């Protein structure tokens, strides 16, 4: 009997030794259902994104750029802040109107000469708005600066009055010398401010702040030519600018612009 018991024990042990044992699962193995993205894309949630350009995941998941700012090279970058910035990030950018996407500001870019035109203003010739310089006939005789004038004039649909003022004469001064009498001409005729196709010659109550005026070539013996936007690109070819004496040295309006490289 003892021999039989030993035989059964050995047989049982041998049988157990032949049982296949399943290996434990590898805790570090990837989830077969996980999202797989191809570089340079990155898995953010259930979507593959390019962190170099994605404004919602700029540089890393869930790093969002503020509205109006682009993601460039994995960094939130204001690429439309100025003509210089636009040209830097887009070397093919051409002359024309542009908009700062962050705040909606519009401006005109002369990309050829790297000049930015921000605004046109009408003001008393002895009190130019801060940051503005006078627009002269010589400026409007230059094709590049004439295009800049037309560009920003069309964006504004005219010239704006930053601060209310009154004048005692309405011809547009071409110089800033208080004793000077040189005025701006277009096509050999006087130029004046206008509002809604009406010549505004030293209006009662003055020129109103925040109001957009136009300019008008207004000969006394013929129909006036109101410069209503949009002005054509050849406006100053049709109405060439010049300067001549004849405007009284009094409280006259003048044209000013804000421009910079």
What's the short story on this structure?
The chain has 261 residues and is of the alpha+beta class.
Layout of helices and strands, plus pairs?
Blueprint: H1 2-17, E1 42-44, E2 47-49, E3 70-72, E4 75-77, H2 83-89, E5 96-99, E6 106-110, E7 115-124, E8 133-134, H3 137-141, H4 143-156, E9 159-160, E10 182-186, E11 189-195, E12 198-199, E13 212-217, E14 225-226, H5 235-238, E15 241-245, E16 253-260
Antiparallel strand pairs: 1-2, 3-4, 5-6, 6-7, 7-16, 8-16, 9-13, 10-11, 10-15, 11-12, 11-13, 13-14
Care to describe what's here?
Helix content is 18%, strand content 27%. The protein is of the alpha+beta class and 261 residues long. The chain folds into 2 domains: 36-77, no CATH class; 94-261, no CATH class. Strands 9, 10, 11, 12, 13, 14 and 15 form a 7-stranded antiparallel β-sheet that branches. β10 and β11 form a beta hairpin. Residues 1-23 have low confidence and may be disordered.
